[in-house]
């Protein structure tokens, strides 16, 4: 072996070689050739198979690497200290302020008054208690809120179960959807998307827990009075508040409604003091005995214009943009599922949406030639976290007065109509128009929107009226959706009371309209109107007729209508004003600025009212999430300044101790432009 390593030749075998026979050499050569050819064939086959396997193998390795990295990062995320994300954020953005709960705990504030949350529309979870065959296996599973998994798995079944009966506004036969109970009902709308969770966590830091916090969950789809008829929700809220007052040693509750929950609690206050059977029988002094303060967040007291477009064409600004980018996609019959039509069919059965139709008519919202906010641009600039707005009196943001805008024209068919002088607009009254039947809904399967009963003539009559103000919107909705409005008019009203002592205002249909009802006799109670400002908010719309098709929605927002440099408030067919992205300042602040300010016919006992506005400041980077200074309609529930105000009041502070009014908008000026007898 050593000799072989040194390069020496190996020893020859001692065995004698076998002698060759003539002809063997040729045979051996042939067999060797065949053997070599066979080997080459098998080698090529193995190489070919190897190449094919390498392709699949590479894909598998790639997927495996991705999964391994993902699981490794997930492991690190769960293994890292809880303070690590905050450390990274602070390293990038600088030191973060203490959450309000931590800050106030250091000041010595502790839990005092029980707290009641009243969620708004769509933010509360709904679960299935009884359903049809298609909902098998979903008992007590969330159909609204959470992951919304059933929307993707069985969309038509989901729509069927969340729709209400079109005649009664209650459960369809064989279906029972009920609100989720407890704080989990509305702490998160979906995984990672908080609603009340941040506020609840900060309250917990100063000593609150579930025994002195209550989520007044209700089925936000049905009319306010029907929540009592079907579920006795108003009675449950009454008894829970009474229990919390007793168990806290007689301390009154602080009620915190948000969005539509503001209107719902306004209805509750009239219900609780009204005699049975229509009311709760608590007496005229019930609120004075049980409520310390009502801290309304983003309250649509006088309605919101976007509620009209939702009922009229199942649109808001974002939907209109999507509808314009991909024309027909949201309306096409894909696997029998026309998205917008089914959304309209479903939402038009939700009577609660009609509570947010603009109230007060032209007196509040303006007419063809005027509006309280007319002449103002939406927002002068976007605010940053470090900005302090001090422009104008009371810190108001100065707004450009470049072009006269007709905000009172809530719906205009065509930009030229929105801009024209009222005397030059030729209109044809739609109210007496004869509806056709050439869009019979028998061709539209189960997609029912009431437009199929109007016919071409009825649709044309709506467009020929050209422009609609708040005073004519009710007639418009009555014309295009008579069944919906028949239900709605039995539960809601949108006018202004001439004489609040008239017996007719004792009916529940008036209780959620602050212009047709009195505040309770509770002079020691305080009401806060808290809302964001500095976010462009929908106020008026430019419409057009849609291209005709079977089972279509005939009207849509004209996203091609732009204001240009001389009118930055008109974008994508939507005129914007100051607000919180959903509720205009006028609706959120008018009652506190004028309607309830001091002793008025709407506030006979002189309940103290305070406006607390919060300037919108978007998050500086993605690490801040939805921000801690947001003024947007839902995100404001994570606004540190708002949370601090709530915690101070819950701990015993009064409106004066908070600093009274905090105003950045022109709400007082706009309120003075409204001629409303007080």
Explained architecture:
The chain has 678 residues and is of the alpha/beta class. It is 35% helix and 12% strand. It has a six-stranded parallel β-sheet with strand order 7-1-8-9-12-17, with helices on both faces. Strands 10, 11, 13, 14, 15 and 16 form a six-stranded mixed β-sheet that branches. Helix 4 packs parallel to helix 7 and helix 18 packs across helix 19. The chain is globular and about 125 Å long.
Short description:
By secondary structure, the chain is α/β, with parallel strands linked by helices.
Provide the residue-averaged pLDDT: 84
Biggest sheet character: 6 strands, parallel
Strand fraction band? 5-15%
Radius of gyration: 34 Å
Side-by-side strand order of the widest sheet: 7-1-8-9-12-17
What is the count of helical runs? 23
List the helices and strands and how they pair.
Blueprint: H1 2-5, H2 24-79, H3 84-93, H4 100-106, E1 115-118, E2 126-130, E3 142-144, H5 149-153, H6 155-162, E4 176-179, E5 188-190, E6 193-194, H7 197-205, E7 213-215, H8 224-231, H9 233-247, E8 253-257, H10 260-273, H11 286-290, E9 291-297, H12 305-313, H13 317-325, H14 339-347, H15 361-365, E10 411-413, H16 415-419, H17 455-464, E11 467-468, H18 470-480, H19 482-489, E12 526-533, E13 535-545, E14 555-557, E15 570-571, E16 574-579, H20 585-595, E17 608-615, H21 640-650, H22 655-658, H23 667-672
């Amino acid at each position: 072996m050593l000799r072989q390593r040194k390069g020496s030749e190996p020893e020859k075998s001692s065995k004698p070689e076998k002698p060759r026979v003539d002809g063997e050499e040729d045979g051996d050569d042939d067999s060797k050739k065949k053997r070599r050819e066979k080997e080459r064939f098998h080698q090529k086959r193995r190489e070919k198979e190897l190449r094919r396997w390498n392709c699949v193998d590479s894909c598998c390795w790639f997927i495996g690497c991705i999964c391994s990295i993902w699981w490794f990062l997930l492991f690190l995320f769960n293994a890292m200290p809880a303070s690590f994300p905050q450390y990274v954020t602070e390293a990038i953005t600088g030191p973060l302020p203490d959450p309000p709960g931590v800050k106030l705990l250091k000041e010595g504030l502790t839990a005092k008054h029980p707290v009641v949350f009243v969620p708004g529309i769509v933010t509360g979870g709904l679960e299935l208690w009884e359903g049809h065959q298609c909902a098998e296996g979903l008992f007590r599973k969330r159909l609204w809120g959470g992951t919304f998994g059933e929307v993707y798995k069985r969309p038509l079944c989901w729509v069927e179960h969340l729709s209400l009966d079109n005649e009664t506004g209650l459960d369809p036969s064989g279906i029972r959807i009920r609100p989720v109970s407890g704080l989990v009902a509305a702490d998160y709308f979906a995984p990672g998307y908080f609603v009340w969770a941040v506020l609840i966590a900060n309250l917990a830091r100063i000593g609150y827990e579930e025994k002195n916090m209550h989520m007044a969950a209700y089925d936000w789809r049905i009319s306010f009075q029907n929540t009592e008829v079907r579920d006795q929700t108003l009675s449950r809220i009454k008894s829970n508040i009474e229990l919390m007052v007793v168990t806290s040693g007689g301390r009154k509750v602080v009620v915190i409604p948000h969005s539509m929950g503001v209107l719902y609690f306004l209805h509750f206050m009239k219900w609780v003091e009204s005699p049975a059977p229509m009311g709760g029988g608590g007496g005229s002094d019930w609120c004075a005995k049980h409520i310390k303060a009502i801290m309304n967040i983003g309250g649509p007291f006088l309605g919101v214009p976007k509620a009209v477009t939702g009922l009229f064409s199942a649109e808001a600004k974002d939907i209109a943009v999507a509808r314009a980018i991909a024309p027909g996609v949201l309306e096409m019959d894909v696997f029998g599922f026309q998205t917008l039509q089914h959304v309209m069919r479903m939402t038009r059965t939700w009577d609660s949406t009609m509570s947010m139709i603009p109230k007060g008519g032209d007196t509040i919202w303006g007419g063809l030639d005027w509006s309280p906010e007319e002449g103002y641009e939406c927002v002068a600039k976007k605010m940053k976290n470090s900005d302090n707005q001090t422009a104008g009196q009371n810190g108001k943001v100065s707004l450009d007065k470049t072009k006269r805008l007709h905000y009172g024209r809530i719906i205009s068919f065509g930009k030229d109509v929105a801009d024209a002088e009222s005397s030059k607009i030729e209109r044809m009254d739609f109210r007496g128009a004869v509806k056709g039947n050439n869009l019979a809904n028998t061709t539209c399967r189960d997609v029912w929107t009431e437009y199929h009963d109007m016919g071409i003539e009825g649709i044309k009559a709506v467009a020929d009226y050209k422009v609609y103000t708040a005073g004519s919107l009710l007639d418009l909705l009555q014309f295009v959706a008579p069944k919906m409005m028949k239900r709605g008019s039995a539960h809601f009203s949108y006018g202004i009371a001439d004489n609040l002592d008239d017996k007719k205002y004792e009916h529940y249909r008036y209780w959620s309209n602050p212009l047709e009802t009195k505040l309770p006799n509770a002079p020691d109670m305080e009401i806060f109107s808290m809302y964001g400002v500095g976010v462009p908010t929908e106020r008026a719309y430019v419409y057009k007729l849609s291209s005709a098709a079977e089972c279509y929605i005939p009207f849509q927002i004209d996203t091609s209508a732009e204001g240009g440099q001389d009118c930055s408030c008109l974008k994508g067919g939507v005129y914007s004003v100051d607000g919180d992205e959903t509720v205009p300042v006028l609706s959120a602040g008018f009652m506190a600025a004028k309607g309830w300010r001091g002793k008025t016919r709407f506030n006979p006992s002189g309940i103290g009212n305070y406006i607390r506005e919060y300037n919108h400041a978007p998050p500086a980077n993605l690490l801040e999430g939805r921000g801690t200074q947001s003024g947007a309609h839902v995100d404001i529930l994570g606004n540190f300044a708002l949370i601090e105000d709530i915690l101070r009041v819950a701990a015993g502070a009064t409106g004066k101790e908070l600093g009274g009014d905090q105003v950045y908008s022109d709400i007082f000026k706009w309120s003075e432009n409204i001629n409303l007898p007080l």
